[in-house]
Amino acid sequence: MFRFIHRIKIVTSATGFKGAPAHEGWKIGYHWAMNGTIQRVLILFLAAGCTGAVLAQEAQEGNADVEYVRAIHTAAGTWTFHVTVRHPDTGWDDYADGWDVLRSDGTVVRRSGSNDPFTRLLLHPHVTEQPFTRSQGGLVLPDDETVVTVRAHDLRNGWGGAEVVVDLSRERGDRFEVVR
Q: Which DSSP state fits 107?
């Protein structure tokens, strides 16, 4: 791919390269110049105990991200959540297949009588529709429940993408809005 490597410089500082952010807990990086243009390649290793198993586990974490949540208080204790999810759906083998609203104690909020595995079950891939928004109404939350977390799940790798914490007592916050 590259024809000439002019120099190699090994950096063992945990503060990173010039212009690059520090990566706490990571130590070793390589910096080299190729064909007269400086190219930076940062190969990161854990300071101690980096194993293939750790890297494989990190590669398998879910990547369905919740980008935005709109929570609407529709009746006494009843809510509708509009959740925007982004996931690199590739088809029926790998797609975002659901999202949950979690109470502060970790309990999943579901519609009354629902047997779905998630607060909102997503039944098909959204390969050409990214990000996408889906809604779920009829969710009952007690009046004293002021904070919920919304997370998304993907069929292949499960949980692990970006979550949104929603403060139901505020009108707006980081990646959410609440309508009463």
A: P
